[in-house]
């Protein structure tokens, strides 16, 4: 990749390299924890399709490096429909390595949603302990549903920005 991993991300992957189970879709608020191999495959796919992506960078967030998709956005969690919660290992001039970003098929721009992975995991723990989260049967496995105007964990992240 050409970038070093922030300590929190390195620690996460040293403990476990993704879910490793294709049968259970998303163990982190219904988001799939990607293995490093899966993350690199997503980055490669983004780079191969980069010529087809239309990006307006007139109002680029100074915390982010120019270019979308950016190879410095390492996808860590996926909603399996093309949206990712990732860690920025190559931030812009006002950004911080390790900031957590939201990006993908349903988003026109990359959004910084947390200062670091610890803040993201704390948000998830607080969300899970609140009354806003319920489990909805969805076939064989339950789906985490967030009450309110945002009904999925990825959408609930937008409340943080």
- Which value, in Å, is the CA radius of gyration? 15 Å
- CA(first)-CA(last) distance: 28 Å
Which strand order spans the largest sheet, edge to edge or round the barrel? 1-2-3-4-5
Q: Helices and strands, in N-to-C order?
A: HEHEEEEHEEH
Share in helix: 10-25%
Q: SS-based structural class? A: alpha+beta
| Sheet with most strands | 5 strands, antiparallel
> Looking at the structure, what is the overall shape?
globular
Extract low-pLDDT stretches. none
Q: What is the averaged pLDDT score?
A: 78
- Say how many strands there are: 7
Proportion of beta-strand residues: 15-25%
Q: Number of helix segments? A: 4
Organism: Deinococcus malanensis
Protein name: Knr4/Smi1-like domain-containing protein
Domain Knr4/Smi1-like: 1-121
Pfam families: SMI1_KNR4 (PF09346)
Quickly describe the structure.
By secondary structure, this protein is α+β, with helices and mostly antiparallel strands.
Architecture overview:
With 161 residues, the protein is α+β, with helices and mostly antiparallel strands. The chain has a domain of 110 residues. The chain is built from 4 helices and 7 strands, in the order αβαββββαββα. A 5-stranded antiparallel sheet has the order 1-2-3-4-5. A two-stranded antiparallel ribbon has the order 6-7.
What does the secondary structure layout of this molecule look like, with pairings?
Blueprint: H1 7-15, E1 32-33, H2 36-48, E2 73-78, E3 83-88, E4 100-104, E5 111-114, H3 117-129, E6 133-138, E7 141-146, H4 153-157
Antiparallel strand pairs: 1-2, 2-3, 3-4, 4-5, 6-7
């Amino acid at each position: 990749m050409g970038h070093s991993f922030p300590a929190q991300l390195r620690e996460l992957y040293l403990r476990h390299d993704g879910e490793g189970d294709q049968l259970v879709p998303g163990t982190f608020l219904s988001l799939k924890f990607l293995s490093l191999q899966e993350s690199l495959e997503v980055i490669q796919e983004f780079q191969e399709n980069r010529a087809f992506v239309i990006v307006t960078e007139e109002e680029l967030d100074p915390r982010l490096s120019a270019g979308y998709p950016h190879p410095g956005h390492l996808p860590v969690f996926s909603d399996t429909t093309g949206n990712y919660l990732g860690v920025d290992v190559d931030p812009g001039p006002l950004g911080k390595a390790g900031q957590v970003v939201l990006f993908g098929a349903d988003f026109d721009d990359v959004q910084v949603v947390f200062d670091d992975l610890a803040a993201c995991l704390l948000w998830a723990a607080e969300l899970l302990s609140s009354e806003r989260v319920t489990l909805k049967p969805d076939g064989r496995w339950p789906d985490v549903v967030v009450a309110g105007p945002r009904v999925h964990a990825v959408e609930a992240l937008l409340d943080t920005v």
